[in-house]
Amino acid sequence: MLRQAFVGLCCLGCVMTSAAFAQAPKGDKNYAVVDLKNVDDDFFYQGEYYGSLGSDCNWCGSAALGLQVVARGDGHFIASLYQGGLPGNGWDLSAREELEGTRDGDILTLQGKDLTLQVYKNGPVEILDHRGHLLGQLTKYQRSSVTLGATPPPGATVIFDGSSVDELTGGEITPGGLLKEGTEFKHTYRSYRLHVEFRLPYMPYAVGQARSNSGIYLQSRYEVQVLDSFGLEGVENECGGLYKQKRPRINMCFPPLSWQTYDIGFVAPKFDADGKKIKDAYITVLLNGVPVHQDYAIIAKTGGGKQEGPELYPIKLQDHRNPVRFRNIWIVDLSDQPDPQYCFPCQSLLCDK
Known about the structure:
Number of domains: 2
InterPro entries: AL/BT2_dom
Protein name: 3-keto-alpha-glucoside-1,2-lyase/3-keto-2-hydroxy-glucal hydratase domain-containing protein
Number of helices: 0
CATH superfamily of the largest domain: Exo-inulinase, domain 1
CATH architecture of the largest domain: Sandwich
Strand order of the largest sheet: 2-3-4-5-6-7-8-9
Signal peptide: 1-22
Radius of gyration: 21 Å
GO molecular function: hydrolase activity
Order of helices and strands: EEEEEEEEEEEEEEEEEEEEEEE
Pfam family, one: 3keto-disac_hyd
Low-confidence stretches: 1-5, 13-21, 347-353
Mean pLDDT: 90
Helix content: under 10%
Oligomer: single chain
Distance between the termini: 36 Å
Structural class: mainly beta
Strand content: 35-45%
CATH topology of the largest domain: Jelly Rolls
């Protein structure tokens, strides 16, 4: 059975219908979908799959496999195959295998080194050896973070709950009650525990930093990256990364149009009377309920952030011209603690000191 240490899963076999959907304009890198009603047909092949292989499989190191399929537009796809299960749910952290393929009608064929995978709309995935023998099947799943919908604890400040932008500067609410990118907190905080939920648009033609980009700028200095890096390696400038400084321990990015969570514990750097830094900031980050950074000392500002200093600046939700949406944002202010401690009760993690 799939290990569910941090994230929950539900089978997608009957969740999405096979009705006709809009087709993406070919090659348009700015094509961005924020509503499931407007996705193209490739969207229904993208996602996460899990299953087991038969006992006659000599190739696999373990019987369980996880698969992440990424749409690249016009029926083209890439994918990552994982031994043991999905990232955060059983993957044994061995090297992932990269696959690619195209969709012909209702079947997407992905080619790997030793295996051929045939993906059907919303699953299943049939796994074949080089002779075409069926080795097993994978089922499509929709994972959700264990911190999704987390209730603000006593003493927390609600930054955004869909009702107003009173705690934000330049905040704008969509007709559906979601927060648009490109805003900042009205008040400043030195040290804190922060909860943010975000949803990435579906942008199959976009690549790299153009693919559903935003960011959470702590103190307007340190960026925790927001990006559609689902199914990719997970490097310093991808989702979960401290921008260009530290890659996440594991790539826990979910597929676009899924609600995702960041839970961030941040302790501000310390400066002496002359403004010289005497202690780095440090941070713990949970992406979709899984620790991707723990007690990491941030050595300098990241990317386009403000230079480090004792002055406080607000938390920003970056506008990178992609329609990323946010909801359920709250913060626990720890600024009055001389040696701040933060913990995430749902995670059996020790409080950070």
